[in-house]
Q: What sequence folds into this?
């Protein structure tokens, strides 16, 4: 078969199919519509799922950044790495960012955790503050922290771990305010709730109940010991050092003369004349021969 004839047959077949396309479309309209809707729905679902997953990852990344910012600023306060690191007010900015994040996110678990971290930052600012805190400011800031913990309780209704952690934070605020009875009641509820069994917060609440009475006692430091009396120390006269040429006419201070260098018990007594060696009078006499006095009796 020649090529021209094959091309003519293909052209006729295509023309025939194009001519029957409208009728085929009308006969299969429902099936075509179903296929088109299915393709569009599948594409839309895939796009929505990918977008939602990316948005969730971005929210988690932002939250992690705010938490790390608090940790870094705490280290900055402890290390005093810069002049700005000397004030605890640098913790307020990440606390505000966490509050804004908690209000904007659609994830209740992330929102609850953000409120908890915000409350922890507010409490930490009081402990890191270098200057003294008035009772009014102390109570007002702890009230803000308690409010953040309460918001976390609402958001974490379906998460026992976060629920217990938020209630534990409220108890800590009550304890720091000196309301130990209220704090003890909250600790007891956490420890007794079956929904919280097996969580780390429940174990912490039990430990707090056992040791909280120790925190209620006033800490009294021992008095400063009295200084020991100083022993009698005889001052020593510094030795004189001759730096220049020695004066032969200057008397030596090492050999006292007169009665000042003689003890009182022997003052006025004439010391006996020592009997010297024979060489004292005769330099040629052998050693060991005592010298004799020629004026002595018996000679």
A:
């Amino acid at each position: 078969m020649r090529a021209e004839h094959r091309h003519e047959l293909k052209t006729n077949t295509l023309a025939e199919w194009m001519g029957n396309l409208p009728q085929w479309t009308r006969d299969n309209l429902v099936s075509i519509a179903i296929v088109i809707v299915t393709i569009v729905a599948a594409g839309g679902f895939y796009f929505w799922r990918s977008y939602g997953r990316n948005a969730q990852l971005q929210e988690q990344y932002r939250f992690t950044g705010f938490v790390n910012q608090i940790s870094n600023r705490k280290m900055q306060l402890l290390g005093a790495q810069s002049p700005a690191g000397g004030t605890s007010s640098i913790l307020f900015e990440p606390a505000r960012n966490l509050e804004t994040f908690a209000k904007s996110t659609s994830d209740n678990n992330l929102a609850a955790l953000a409120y908890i971290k915000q409350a922890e930052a507010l409490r930490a600012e009081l402990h890191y503050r270098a200057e003294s805190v008035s009772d009014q400011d102390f109570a007002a800031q702890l009230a803000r922290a308690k409010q953040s913990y309460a918001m976390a309780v609402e958001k974490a209704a379906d998460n026992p771990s976060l629920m217990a952690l938020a209630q534990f934070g409220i108890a800590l605020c009550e304890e720091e305010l000196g309301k130990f009875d209220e704090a003890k009641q909250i600790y007891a509820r956490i420890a007794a709730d079956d929904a919280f069994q097996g969580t780390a917060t429940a174990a912490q609440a039990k430990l707090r109940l056992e040791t909280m009475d120790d925190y209620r006692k006033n800490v009294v430091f021992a008095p400063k010991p009295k200084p020991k009396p100083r022993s009698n120390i005889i001052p020593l006269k510094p030795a004189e050092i001759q730096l220049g040429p020695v004066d032969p006419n200057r008397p030596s201070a090492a050999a006292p003369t007169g009665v000042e260098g003689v003890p009182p018990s022997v003052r006025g007594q004439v010391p006996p004349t020592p009997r010297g060696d024979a060489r004292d009078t005769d330099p040629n006499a052998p050693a060991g021969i005592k010298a004799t006095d020629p004026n002595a009796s018996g000679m």
User: Anything to note?
Assistant: The radius of gyration is 51 Å.
